[in-house]
Amino acid sequence: MKQGIILLIILMVPALSYAQPGSESQLPEIKFDAESYDLGIVTQEMAMHSFEFRNTGTSELIIEKLVPS
Predict the structure, then answer these.
(1) Residues 10, 34 contacting (CB under 8 angstroms)
(2) pLDDT tens digit string along 15-50?
(3) Taking Cα atoms as reference points, which of 48, 59, 2, 50 lies closest to residue 10?
């Protein structure tokens, strides 16, 4: 009996891990006007560029952390 329960649990774990998330119609979606920008050859002066983006989803887009590269 104990082995049957353990076997059932082992078989259920993969099935549950493939569960699909809820409705995706209520998710935020970010769209960039341009995803990259070539700064050319940068010498010692500061190089800057601003990327413009829009939330095209139906819920609020919250940006919690930005990491420059």
Answers:
(1) no
(2) 777 766 666 578 899 999 998 999 888 888 888 889
(3) 2
